[in-house]
């Protein structure tokens, strides 16, 4: 199974983002971008790749232990940009340090369980669109990507509590990837207010 660990925005945060993204899809050249489906929006903590079934129990146990070590925290979707000429994303604000810490723990744990050493590099974001597969994106695609990113710079979404993370399966097929929740773990409840 192709697996990754993720956090999902709240329905309210996703709905607000959908309203902001709708006009971006109408920008000149935006029809050439591959837009991610709203029901698949997520914040990846760690991509695990293909995981053999016999390693799932140890992975689940480790993720359960990781969840017990972290408190719920608060995030908001905010700002945006692009990675080169390939990916349009919306960023995060709020207790991003808590998300980074959780991502580091999940990545380290997954590496131990799966026997893979991976250097930790994390830029928390939610992918909104990609340019076409293979080759170099055309001028219209690049212009649409940049124009959409400029429209996102001032975006400040609603705050939501991150109370859990999920182990997700990614099924690749013709068209877009399909994501399925394999398991989920609750984070410890918030104890008072956190400050950045």
From TrEMBL:
Keyword terms: Hydrolase, Ligase
Native organism is Kitasatospora kifunensis (Streptomyces kifunensis)
Per the annotation, the residue ranges of the short sequence motif HXTX 2 are 125-128
Q: Name one GO molecular function term.
A: 2',3'-cyclic-nucleotide 3'-phosphodiesterase activity
Q: What does this protein do?
A: Hydrolyzes RNA 2',3'-cyclic phosphodiester to an RNA 2'-phosphomonoester.
Question: Where are the annotated coiled coils located?
Answer: none
**Record-annotated membrane-spanning stretches:** none
Superkingdom of the source species:
Bacteria
Quote the catalytic residue positions: 42, 125
Q: Where is this motif: HXTX 1?
A: 42-45
* Enzyme Commission numbers on file: 3.1.4.58
Q: What protein family is recorded?
A: Belongs to the 2H phosphoesterase superfamily. ThpR family.
Q: What is this protein called?
A: RNA 2',3'-cyclic phosphodiesterase
Question: Mind telling me which SUPFAM superfamilies this protein's record contains?
Answer: LigT-like (SSF55144)
Reaction(s) this enzyme catalyzes, per UniProt: a 3'-end 2',3'-cyclophospho-ribonucleotide-RNA + H2O = a 3'-end 2'-phospho-ribonucleotide-RNA + H(+)
